Amino acid sequence: MISKELKTDKKHWNKALSTIRQRLVFPYRIVRNKALGKSEPISVVLVVNNRCNLDCHYCFGDYGNRRDKDYTTEELVKVIDDLYALGTRYMVVHGGETLLRKDVGYIVDYIKRKGIYVGFITNGILLAQNLDVVRNVDSLCISLDGNEAGNDLNRGTGSFKAAVDAIKLASKEKFRLRVSATLTRNTMHDIEFLAKLAKEHKFQLYFSILYKPLKKALDMGMSQEEIRESLSKILYFKNQGYPIFTSDRCLNYSMSWPFDYNVKHHATPQELPVGFEPIRCYYGRSKFVVEANGYVYPCFPLNEEFKALNLKEVGVAKAIEHVRKTNRCVACPHLSNNDYNLLLGLSARQLVYIVKRQLQEVFHI
């Protein structure tokens, strides 16, 4: 049932309907591009700064220790304009820690004024002081990896309390809330805890698995058996009715990954074994990552290996085209990537699944 609050609150009802209309633009452009044989960067993760107030040990970007110079406001606006002109209609504002950027409220408003759907990711530490910034986003994602002991081993002392306080505040404010959890050896036993928290606070729960950890986080890596057991547990709690976003198909696909997760977490066509049917990858074709230092990648897992061009040197269009021409990866076991790939590939089952999940998210069903 639709929540009583939403039924009686005209402002929230209108915003919910507006969000649904915006979300329909996304599949429309996918269908249109497929019919016309076009290729657009429909969806972009825009990393807006190089700084973070945490130092998560597994972080691919090492944002807690970066010294790169951030975009100026004018540079970032130009990047957004260029992406919009190329066809971007869905943008995730990412960090570093997004709320450390002083002009991030202006940036969010600017993206929204162009009619682009805005997702926003934060660790929650600064949420209470920045409610007006996130009020205008279409979906808010807070990072929380597990219970206090495991989460704080992953992300730093005090990060659990900050994230849970932010989740409670976001629920109170009726934000469209998602929570992203990275499972490591420290948090692999916290799946039930997270599932129950999601049910209690009515948010959609996303899981990531720490595959092939960085050298500084090797002790956080899980064995093959532990990874498959974790995926199986996620599937179990999902089938028990907990609000876990990842589809059954992607969970089963990741469990069937034919390589050692800690050795190979992406593959080219030549590397795939005979008989293995990959979920076709659209990262680097229809979805891209634009880093805060200007480099453009197919996806975060390839940041270390991909020879990217910098948009500050060659421009947005050329940096994106370089990714299209040189990215050879066609398959991976990453959960969120593959849910997105099924959507971009116009899987009918996935489209129905995504619509259902988004209705649950928007209407708090």
Please explain how this structure is put together.
The chain has 365 residues and is of the alpha/beta class. The chain has a single domain, classed as TIM Barrel, CATH 3.20.20. 43% of the residues lie in helices and 11% in strands. The protein contains 14 helices and 8 strands. The protein has an 8-stranded mixed sheet with strand order 6-5-4-3-2-1-7-8. α2 (10-36) runs antiparallel to α14 (348-363) and α9 (224-239) packs antiparallel against α10 (248-255). The N and C termini lie close together (5 Å).
CATH architecture label: Alpha-Beta Barrel
What does the radius of gyration come to? Answer: 19 Å
The main β sheet shows up as:
8 strands, mixed
- On the 0 to 100 scale, the average pLDDT is 89
The number of distinct structural domains comes to 1
List keywords for this structure.
alpha/beta, TIM Barrel, eight-stranded mixed sheet, 43% helix, 11% strand
Strand-helix topology:
Elements: H1 4-8, H2 10-36, E1 43-47, H3 73-86, E2 90-94, H4 104-113, E3 117-122, H5 131-134, E4 139-143, H6 148-155, H7 159-172, E5 177-183, H8 191-201, E6 204-209, H9 224-239, H10 248-255, E7 287-290, E8 296-297, H11 311-314, H12 316-326, H13 335-344, H14 348-363
Parallel strand pairs: 1-2, 1-7, 2-3, 3-4, 4-5, 5-6
Antiparallel strand pairs: 7-8
Helix pairs in contact: 2-14, 9-10
Quickly describe the structure:
This protein has 365 residues and is an alpha/beta fold.
